[in-house]
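Entry for the shared binder. Reason: the reviewer on the internal report wants the predicted structure included alongside the sequence.
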Amino acid sequence: MTRLIVVRHGQTLWNLERKYQGHSDIALTDKGVSQAQAVATRLAEEPIQAVYASDLSRAFKTAECIAAKHNLTVTLVPELREIKFGDWEGLTYEQISERWPGLLGKLWTTPDELEIPAGETFYQLKERASAAIQQIVDAHPGQTVAVVAHGGTIGTILCAMLDIHLNHVWSIRQDNTAVNVIDYYDGRPTITLLNCVRHLKAESEF
């Protein structure tokens, strides 16, 4: 069995300000660093043999905390980046709605039909991220691997694994430093754990 432990990055300032980040390289807040340290402590006893991350600093820094517990370095994978929000990056929901009336609604209802100005589609995100995940799985048969990425990226990966429509991507919640576990049996993925944040005791609803 190969096990993937897929983690969303810690909190950023733009998370707090509800700005769309995409490919913009926004650092973790102090709370985000604490969240990263908490998830690293949680995963310290897991037999992790490799750590991969998006090359954006919010994911990389979260991954570094996890890797340090296992004396590992982080392998950067640009294909694990968040969706490119193009002209929307750095803007809030209200600002986008004002400048592109009616377009932002598709993000939540029919993301598979959305064409983000100067950005990419969710289909493109799913294709590049899923291909990256498959390469990681193929490179580590029988091992446990940690992967740190982004909410939208993880959502599309899980949609691909479950063979469900991309319009359900936002039905898969991903909180900051959420832990997801995917086990591969004979190459077939089974989702064992989803959006678990019990390491953030004060924030966890479960």
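Summary line for the report: The helical segments are 13-17, 30-42, 57-68, 93-99, 105-109, 122-139, 151-162.
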